[in-house]
Amino acid sequence: MMAIPTRLLPHLPHLVSDYFYDFNKVREFYNGDFRDPAAFERQTRSVESRSIPREDLAAILTEQNRRYGCGPKP
Known about the structure:
Layout: H1 14-21, H2 37-48, H3 54-67
């Protein structure tokens, strides 16, 4: 796989560039630094502790997709 340095991408917002190269500038906007394994652990625990009403969520997303004109593929 070929990696493309994000600095070479034209019109990259400063927020994205700082996220990759100067995280301390944008730390307040994110739940953790992607380079920190402990941040992944904290986020995993946070997500797993949520009670998500999956049936309600599925119904909402189904209705949203219907309104967008999406549906089963023919």
